[in-house]
Amino acid sequence: MTASRPRPARLSALRPASFGAEPTGERLARMRRSPQFTDGQFRNPAPTRQVLRGAALPMVRTQLSREGRLRRAPVGRVPVHRPSAAELSHPPASGLRLTWMGHSTVLAEMDGHRVLFDPVWGERCSPFSWAGPKRLHPVPLPLAQLGPVDAVVISHDHYDHLDMPTVQALAATGAACVVPLGIGADLEFWGVPPARITELDWHESARVGELTLTATPAQHFCGRGMRGPQHTLWASWVVAGPEHRIYHSGDTGYFPGFAETGAAHGPFDATMIQIGAYSDFWPDIHMTPEEGLRAHRDLQGGEPRGVLLPIHWGTFNLAPHPWAEPAERTVAAAFRAGVPVAVPPPGRPFEPADEQVVEPWWRAVAVPPVQGWPSWPPAAPSPAPAPVPVAASAVASAPPLTSIPAHHAAGQPAAPAPALAPDPTAPAAAAPAAISTPVSADPGTAAPAPAASVPVAMDDAVPGGAPDPVAPAADTATGP
Known about the structure:
Layout: H1 9-14, H2 25-32, E1 37-38, E2 41-42, H3 56-63, H4 66-71, E3 96-102, E4 105-110, E5 113-117, E6 151-153, H5 164-170, E7 176-180, H6 184-189, E8 197-200, E9 205-208, E10 211-216, E11 236-240, E12 245-248, H7 257-265, E13 270-274, H8 289-299, E14 307-311, H9 325-337, E15 357-358, E16 435-436
Parallel strand pairs: 5-6, 6-7, 7-8, 12-13, 13-14
Antiparallel strand pairs: 1-2, 3-4, 4-5, 9-10, 10-11, 11-12, 15-16
């Protein structure tokens, strides 16, 4: 389907290619037939505020806070895991392996197929190479060394999820591209053959080999370049294979759609849930860590089963919360709920079927909270093992990536916080001891919850910032 609007030469010289293309022709006609397309734009099922009214001045004050800025980035080198050639040579023993590459980029090796979610290998999530949020850690490995993938899945068109240079590099690989409605115009404009692009509305599915990929609802918005408002769809994704099921949230606020998706497609061996870039100024479009944990439970039918992999944190500075806060709060919430959680450093693979160990690697390179790092609750004892793939992996000994053929804590606070590290490139110190997390071997039986909740120390900075890089922030609702 060739349906992207050509540009006059003069306009093309002024408009960056990274802005993408506007949907036209049959592509646009199909978008307009979508139940989600109302009054000239895509809308969420309920009224959704991108930014709260009256937030502009407090957001500026927050951005100018020196203490807040210091906490929003690591003060040492992030311990990125760089897979070796030997680690790329064998498939996952359980049939499912996940590798978080940073932010929302995840490689899922599943039932003999490889699916790459929201691939961003660029140095900045911006339409420009010289401005915009810059990476806080390098990519774990060059894209050319990743090996062939069967499907590339995009959640929405914001620059931290849809990266033009990465798409152009993947265009020659032969991978199928499965995207929400309208985004195909961008991919086609950047060189992806139309025959390899599949655009889906919510609740529509596509087959890639033995996998079924289904676009499911999310509560967010779109925005890229100078195109009209809400002119491409956003989505979360369910991928189901012969033996496993996984879920990728994309960007979203918390909403009832998680329980509906879980009832229709769950339970899941693993969920990849957005838990970073939240703010009190945009509560409708990005989840807090506690909301992310709640979404995981909704997707699992209310049970503490399956592994939660936190995404959308640690790689780009997109919100005013402290850099390490999303991981700390997610782990604390998961421990309290008895939910297995995997928080590997970027590039380190894990298999959800393996027992999980949480290694708080981020503490060695982050500014501690004012009260010091909180204690986590002790791990609840695991029931007798059963052949149900609902546990997460041991980070320290996780199995590696593989190349598949193209065919196919209650306690006292820690000591007072040390001074900020003066050298942001200083080597990372040894991370605190790893802690095993509760695992429920029976998908219908919850692991025992800890006896007491954990007071997670929070930063005192007022929330604020920009919800998505370069995307326009509006006070208007995107719902009907």
